[in-house]
């Protein structure tokens, strides 16, 4: 009987642990990317991203459907940024090259939060100088504000000279998948290799 009790106890503990593990993953049962996620979004990933309407480098109006035709790494910044933006966008461009080496086609996207100075031509030149496939986008004040609000980014123009002012802004990069939407964000302290590994997981599980 003692041996039987021991076996039953072991089965009970195993079931308890297994049940706890299953419960802890209960919200991920139907999530095809559960093994890829490293961030938890308050309210869920569905609360970030969505439709936008902006201007491309040619001054043409484009929507998110026109832009996000492949897995895309999206960053909100501005071309006059003295330090953070060039480093972050260059990091994202390097990430894209690493993914290319792995046979994964991902598009880098740069959205300006400084539409007063960042004309379509300026944004287009900035993006092209960072990566040949990078899409540069800008728009009216209202269009940019709507896109920023959709992705829950922050930006604020600082006081200064009419032509020489800074813009405070958040520095996340967003992975957005066509027909899926936003799935993950990356902080600026993450390396190209770390981001490429995470992006690769999502792309390979599409």
From TrEMBL:
Similarity comment: family membership: Belongs to the SCO1/2 family.
Alphabetical UniProt keywords: Copper, Disulfide bond, Metal-binding
Record InterPro entries: SCO1/SenC (IPR003782), Thioredoxin-like_sf (IPR036249)
One Pfam entry name: SCO1-SenC
rRNA-binding among keywords: no
The name this protein goes by in its record: Regulatory protein SenC
Residues annotated as binding Cu cation: 81, 85, 169
Residue pairs linked by disulfide bridges in the UniProt entry: 81-85
Organism this protein belongs to: Phaeobacter porticola
Keyword set includes Transmembrane: no
Cleaved signal peptide residues: none
Any one GO MF annotation of this record: metal ion binding
């Amino acid at each position: 009987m003692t041996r039987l009790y021991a076996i039953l106890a072991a089965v009970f503990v195993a079931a308890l642990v297994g049940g706890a593990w299953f419960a802890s993953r209960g919200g991920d049962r139907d999530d095809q990317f559960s093994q890829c996620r490293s961030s938890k979004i308050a309210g869920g990933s569905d609360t970030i991203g969505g439709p936008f309407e902006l201007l491309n480098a040619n001054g043409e109006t484009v929507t998110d459907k026109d832009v996000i035709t492949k897995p895309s790494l999206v960053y909100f910044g501005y071309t006059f940024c003295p330090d953070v933006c060039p480093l972050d966008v260059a990091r994202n461009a390097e990430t894209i090259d690493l993914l290319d080496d792995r046979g994964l086609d991902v598009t880098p996207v740069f959205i300006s939060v400084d539409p007063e100075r960042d004309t379509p031509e300026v944004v287009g030149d900035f993006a092209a100088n960072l990566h040949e496939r990078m899409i540069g986008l800008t728009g009216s004040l209202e269009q940019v504000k709507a896109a920023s609000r959709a992705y829950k980014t922050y930006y604020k123009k600082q006081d200064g000279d009419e032509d020489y002012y800074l813009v405070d802004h958040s520095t996340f990069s967003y992975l957005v998948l066509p027909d899926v939407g936003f799935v993950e964000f990356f902080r600026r302290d993450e390396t190209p290799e770390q981001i490429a590994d995470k992006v690769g997981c999502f792309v390979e599980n599409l």
